[in-house]
Specification:
The protein is of the alpha+beta class. It has one domain: OB fold (Dihydrolipoamide Acetyltransferase, E2P) (Beta Barrel). The protein has 4 helices and 9 strands; from the N terminus they run βααββββββββαα. The strands form 2 sheets. Strands 4-3-2-7-8-9 form a 6-stranded antiparallel β-sheet. A 3-stranded mixed β-sheet has the order 1-6-5. The N and C termini lie far apart (70 Å).
Amino acid sequence: MKKLPVRKLRVRLALILFLMSAFAGKSHATTVIAPDFDHLVSRADAIFEGNVTDVRSQWIGEGEQHRIVTFVTFKVDQSLKGDVGNSYTIRMLGGTVNGETMSVSDAPKFAVGDHDLLFVKDNGRQFIPLVGIQHGRIRIQKDQAGQEILLTGEDQPLADVSQLGNDESGIARNRPSLSLQQFKTAVQDRVRQQKARANTP
């Protein structure tokens, strides 16, 4: 059986923001500004810790709106903001279907078994429904000693919430990673503070 050639369509963020229908053959550079901790928490509709249980790509839309999207489903371990239930699925632009790949610059890649803490915004409406694109994903992994470490969207160990939105490499160097519980506590505290400010006359 003859294999179909793999055709890659690269999609730049600026193009997607303005013209969803014109993604093929264009090249537009853009810069994603890393949000700081306050903005990550305040701009997110939902924040949760979970494990990826399914990743599925498919074509949707017709005509000029015909495009590949990927559905990433998580088993939710803990919700820190919003009501996400026991299972939550995000929809992202891009993916691979029948040898045809559509990729979005700076979009995170998920695989079954990934353990993440996500800051979700406008799921189902935004092309990548994470605050700050890749910055809205904190990966939870284990180091060589079997200790849990947190990695930012720039693949730096998360040593302090103040490094988010700043020069992560300089702040994180030679400092231990925050524990998952420390980070979740910081998120919950910031959610409460932001709610209190919003309710203050």
